[in-house]
Structures are given as C-alpha cells and as structure tokens.
Amino acid sequence: MPVKNYGVLKGKAVKTMLGSGEKPHFQVLIQDAQDIQYRIAINIKSQAHPSEVLYMVNEHFHSEDIIKLPDLDFGFTSIRNNCPDIGLDFIRGNLLDSSKMIPLPPDLDGIDNDLNEKIQYYVQQAIDQSATIYAFGDRWGPEENTPDRYFDFLPGNGIHDIHMNQGNLEPWKNDNGIWQDGGILIHFEQENRWIAIFLAFQSQSWCTDENGHAVKPVEQCNHKNVHLQ
C-alpha cells in the first residue's frame, strides 16, 4: 500500500519546535487562509541504519511543476493516481541532483551543522517574510476530539512522511509508491523565489520499479549513482 492520503498542504508557517528524543521530528505550525491550523512533522532521524537523514536544499529551485502550485487553494489538496502534474518523485521528476544530498545528524553541538538548524533557518525566513509553504506528504486527521500534542490546537490535523517514499525495505515496504515523495517548497512571493528542501533515508534504494519497490539493494544503487539532469 502506498502512502494512504498523499497530497500537499499550502499555508503560512506560524511557529516551530525543534526535534528531540529517540524519534525526533522538526515540528511546524501551519495556518491556511481560513485560519485552520495544521502541524507538519519532518523526520530528522531515521529509525533504520544509518540513522543520519540525507538532506539537500535548493535556494533557487526551478521546476515546471511549481507553476501550478500558486493556483492551489490554501489548505490540503489530495493527490491521487500517481499524478506527475503536482506530485513529487525524486527519481522520475528531475527535481534534484541526488548526488548532492548529504547525511546530517538531527542535533549536534556547533553552528549550522545539523537538521534542526538547517530546517529552522529556512522556515524562520518563511515566517519572517510571510512566505507560502507547500508541504508534500501523508495527511492525518482531523482528529475532532484530540488536541494537537505539540501546539495544542483542535482538531489535531497535519502532514507527515515529508521525505522520499519509495525504495523502502521491510518494515516500511508497504509505504512504497511513485509520484508520492514528500518535500517542502517555500515560495517567497515578493521575490518570486522558491526554496526546496528534500530529505531521504540512507536505507532507501534509488533504483525502484513502477510500484516504487527497490529493484536493487542500496549498496548497488545509492543516491550517488543516480543523476537526474
């Protein structure tokens, strides 16, 4: 089964919370044009080995796909049936040069050297400049009787799996699919500039079939072997 409720959330970032603990996620409070609140939960550590997450940011992102995004309504838009018009696919979509992805720890002493700091830097820019965030991933909620556990809004509601969602082995194989990768795009409207943040796990293979399943093990097909230009 691929990601169950894949789509894109469009909104404004309001607040952040750094990830910590055994399964850390960087949390962002998002609000849409109707003041409905969502939380996006961004993995900053893998539960598989190696645990450091692959990261890449493009501060001047250009893609044919993004011209459609500003026309979307604020809030969540479901993306069905392997849709290349809006959905993201790291392998098929020519979105990134995967060889430029680097592994980063979730938290590390020092300046600008871990995922918490990297993501905070760009999301804070979005908050300061009222930029629009597009978060691709799997939606949960609304949970009518359950307040959000981090930002305490009701109903609980949000997006997770904001990372590559193919090439997984067990126990995450059922999440595999094509044109359903997660990611963060930030549109600074005044400059008409886009920033893209892409994440993947080192345990995921970059050689996948039409169902998103690995056709070669990671050792034979890692991200440095894939060049999409």
- How far apart are the first and last residues' alpha carbons, in Å? 30 Å
Largest β-sheet summary: 5 strands, mixed, barrel
Helix content: under 10%
Helix/strand class? mainly beta
Summarize model confidence as the mean pLDDT.
92
Strand content: 25-35%
Provide the low-confidence segments as ranges.
none
Q: Largest sheet, order of strands side by side? A: 1-2-3-8-7
DSSP strand tally: 10
Number of alpha- plus pi-helical segments: 1
Number of structural domains: 1
Round the Cα radius of gyration to an integer and report it.
Answer: 16 Å
Overall geometry: globular
The string of secondary-structure elements, in order, is: EEEEEEHEEEE
InterPro entries: DUF2278
Pfam families: DUF2278 (PF10042)
Organism: Bacillus changyiensis
Protein name: YukJ family protein
Structure description:
The model has no long low-confidence stretch (mean pLDDT 92). 6% of the residues lie in helices and 31% in strands. The relative contact order is 0.24. Strands 1-2-3-8-7 form a 5-stranded mixed barrel. It is globular and about 45 Å long. It contains 1 helix and 10 strands. It has one domain. The chain is mainly β and 229 residues long.
